[in-house]
Every structure is written in C-alpha cells, then in structure tokens.
Amino acid sequence: MTRNQLIVYIKYLKSRSLQIYYGPLIQLLMQHKDNHGIFNSPVDPDAENLPTYYSVISKPMDLGTIRDRLASGEYQTQRDILNDISLVFKNAQKFNPPTHFVYLCASSLSKVFESEVEKIRTRIEQNRVNQANHFCSSCRGTPCRICGEKCLKYSPPVFVCDGDCHERILRNTTYYIIRGQKGRYCQKCYAKKIVGMDKADRKNLFVKKKNDEVFPESWVQCSRCHEWLHCICGLVHPRQVTNNYVCPICLSEDPRREPKPVQGAAAIPTCPLSEYLTEQVYQRVDQVVQKLPKRLRPTGAALSQLKQNLIVRVVSNITTSVTVKKAIAPLFTPDYSDELSLPYRSKCIAFFQHRNGVDILLFVLYVHEFGENTTPANRRCVYISYLDSVHFLSPRYLRTPLYHTLLNGYLAYAKSNGYCRAHIWACPPSRGDDYIFPHHPRDQRTPNADHLIGWYRQLLAEAVEAGIVSHASCQLDELLHINAVRSNNPDINQRQIRCFSIRGVAETELPESVLERIQTSPLPSSPCSSDYETENENENENESDLSSDMSSLSTATASIPSADFTPHPTASLLPTGSLSELERVLLLTVPYFEGDYLPYVGEDLLKEIYQDSLKPKVSRSVRIHRLLTSRPLSPTCPPSPPPPRTEPSFATEFYKTTFYSCLPSSFASMPNPCWRILLAS
Prior knowledge:
It is built from 20 helices and 14 strands. Helix 2 packs antiparallel against helix 6 and helix 14 runs antiparallel to helix 15.
C-alpha cells in the first residue's frame, strides 16, 4: 500500500460516521412518495427537451450522485453533504414555476429534509454524550484515532440447535454444550437427552450457557504516537501485532518511511475460471457504460481504471463429499450397506473491488460440481449452494449487472466443461441470519421471497437470451405435471392446478427428452390409489387439494437415461404399498445436495408417508354409505360439508424456494429452446 493509498484510506474511514447518519436520510428521500423518481438521477436536458437547463442551473445535483459520493468517502463534513442535498431541491424550485408539479414535489421533500436533519443532529449529540460516558474493559474509554469510535461490536453469531429440532437458539436464552465435544442443544432437546440420567451425570456431561455473548473488535497501540486503534482500522490482524507496529496515520505523515507493500486480492493466483469470469465482467462493464448518457460516461482512462479495480478469484477449490441420510440412502442405490457418500468438487468464487486503498470483498459464490462418479440424479450437475453480497460496489448501477454476469458466466463455463444441469435454491435468509458475510450494513435490506424470485427471473432471462440456459422451471411444478401426464389421473391434475393457480401444461409442451423418458418408463401397477380420490363429485375441475404423496418432492432430469430410473427393490425402509412405483421413480430423480431441501425435508416426509401407510384406508363408497346412514337427509337439514384438508407444509416451502434449470446440452433436440418458471403468488 503506497502513501497516497494510505491517505485515501484514512480520509474514507473518517467519513464513515457521515454514512451512518446521512445514508438512511438519502434513502428516505429517494423512496419518498413525493419523489416520483424525479430527483434520484441527473437531469438529461436532451431527453426531456430542456435546452435552457444548463443556462439556468450552473451546478446540477441529484440524490443518486450524493449517495455515490457519500459511499466513496468524498464528503468530509456535515456541511458539504447538507449543502448538496439542499441544492437538489433549490435547483428544481429555481428552474420550474411555483405551480409546476416538480416545484411542489421539491417543496414537500425540502420540508421532510429539514425535519429529518433536526432529528439527525439530536441523535449525533446524544451519541456524542453516550460515547463520552462509555467505559468498558475493552476500550477503557479511549476512542480509535482513525474512526473516532470506542467499542466496535460484531453482530452476535447465529447458533442452531444440533438436536432433533434444528431450530435457531434465540438471543438471551439458555442452551447446553457437551464437555469436550462440539454441538449446542436448546432446552427442549436437552430435556430429551437427559431422560434417565441422574443429576451428577448431567452436571459432568453438560455445561449450561446463555446466548448473550458480545464480541468487540480487538485493539492495537501505535509504537510511535502511542495512540490506540481498532485492529481493523489499523489494517493489522490481531495475531500479527508486534511491538514495532506503526499506525497508518504515522506512516502517511513520515516522508522517510515507505509503507510495506501489502498483498491484496490481485496477488491471489488466477485460474481458467477466474480469467474467464474477469473477461465477462469487463465486457459487461463496457456494455452498461455505453447505455449511459454521454455526459455521465466515464472517460477512457477512468473506465480502464474502473475495470482494473474489479478482481475475480477462485479462493477455494477442494474435493469433498456429502453423506446421504440413512433413511433416504436405500432409495439411491441397490447395494446400500452402511453409508452412502456423493463426491463433488466445492469452489468458492470471490469478487473484489480495489477502492480507497483497500480491497473490498463484495460478492461470494459457493458452487458444488458433481461429476460422473456419483448417483444418476446428481450426475453432471452443478449446485449453486450459497451466494452473498454487500452493497459497497461503486458505482451502484453496476451491482445487479455484474452479479448476474458472474452467475451466468459460471453457468456458461460449467456448460463448456460438460455439466448439463444447474440447480438453484432461491431461499432468502431469515431476519438476523447471515449466509457468508458475518455482518451486513445496517442500511442494506434483506430481500424477501418475491424480490429474490424476481432477481432470479431476470438472471435466467438474460441467460436464455445469451444462449446459456435453454429451459428453466420450478422443480416441484415440473414434477407434478410429469406425474399427472404419466399417471393419466385427472384428480392429481386438479390438485396441482389448485396448488399453483395455473393450468397444467399439456403433454406436447413438455421437453422432448422428458416425454421420451415418460413414454419408455413402465406404467405403475395401480396409478390411481384412494389417496388421489376427491370427496366431492361435483367439485369444479379447476379446484382440488394438494396431494401429500412423495411425487411432489421429485423432478425429471433430462440428462439421465431412462434405465437409471428403475426403482430399487432393496429400498425397504417403507412397507409395501406406501410408495407407488411411480413415486419411487420420481424420488430417484431428486438430486441430493449438502444444505438443500432433501436432506432436511426428505427424511421427515418419509416418516409421514410411513405413518399414513399404517392408517386403515376407507374406500370412497364406504365413506358415502356412512354419511348417508349416520342421519336422515332432509331439505331443511343438508349434510355438513366435509372438513377442510390440511395442506402439507413441505409443498409450500418447496415450490416457493426451488428452481431447476437445464443447460442447452440437455435439450439439443429442441428446435425452439424455452424456459419456464412457474411460482405461486
């Protein structure tokens, strides 16, 4: 890191307090009901036919530009940012007459701005008082020389019970650990484990703890100025602190000492995948910049520097395996003995931006690649396991395009290496949960399910347009339609229609490879069981219930030959008749991934099916006879309607969160490749 980079870094870090207080204010003004998107981007006089704009307005300003400048650390004082925000509304009032719509919106937002500024000033003063009175064993009342803060506390880690419930251990609640072993247990699972144990054994085996721990940032003292700094502010790891440590401020002020070069993200070795993704990112930056108005486009030198600061690296590439749960393993292989492991290659792709003298980690993607030496359902497929990001990419308009480019670029690279299927589980994190980054900015929103699904829709639409993906659909939806076509049971089809609020696709609309597999597979001996019968004969053909059969947890995979779909006779974990032959065939097509829905849902579903199979089944004619003989029918006393059915919770979670995509190599015979995502609202 050079001296100039140190100066830029210190300048940026000292402006972080402005981002904390005024970042939410700008977000509020940009999303206000009176904004209408008028003040969020620069005025384009050519597009809006305003030839006299620059002759009236000498210093144009907009909220989007202020937001980007604030994120890059260009504002050093409150006065600078407040003047620019006020200038946005003054320009609108200066150029437009008092009765104009834009003038009225600017006046309304100006009042909101003034009232919010007073609240911010009150919070700043209150925080200054609290900080002056703060004293603890970590900071001992001393502020950091660079950022000015005292204690920096990390977000508390998320603890999940390792017992049967697998639920989150809430803050300030009690949990237990086993001495000398890993694992945490909530109070409910702890109560189950201690059944039959005496008090002495419980005390010797378990340790009681409370989930209220706080983890502050470590401190380091400069050997020259003897001031204290946070280790993260001083650019040093706590384990690398020495007695000769010199803080960044002292290094930047001493012309005789040159800072030691620090290896950043660019020093990480490259590989063919990282080089390919980097080239795709550069091309996408050029495409996005060309769509900007001419006066907003960066110059040639600035554009070149922007692309050089974007770094893509594969930081992890290991071979590992996932162990299939014992209750599900017999369905995958006929020679199941004790344990079934599926080998795969795990890769971690990291995306950095070099800005303000440091490398900022912006986006992380974990993928699992399954080769030929695995079960047919997982063969030659990739699984997008985790992805996470923080909103520090500058400029902000590159965020979504570049993240989409990284994902679609990886799919294109995987396709060129022989992989034919990709699976994505679009599951937004729960409130307070973090996937990869241990902490996210306070002003970064957590996407809900609808927003995340829309994000993936846009991603897959771009992939289809680029020829990377030829077919994409909701995995459960494709399953249910194949099941309906395969079994030729109208009752099943009706249930699926109610589940998705759509009509099932016709047989001719399914991919040719799927149709070929359906036609070549043998029919089940009894496709229409009593589980699929409706209780009301006059039910509308578009109304039905969700079926709780196992076919709703399976999918058809286009790259697997039909010979691989023969159900294994040794899969005897369920009694005969509890799973039909069709259900076993469909279950075998579900891939098994670490952390996906099948390991956590499949075992419970099999238990439910097993319990249902033990219940005595009553035919429909017997139920009608009992209803008619229980009490006489009369015009004044109509029969009571049947009780509503309870829909299984797994289906709702499954079709909301699962995506299934097939790459062109699987559907090469299709003349017009198409993609389909069918999700319930």
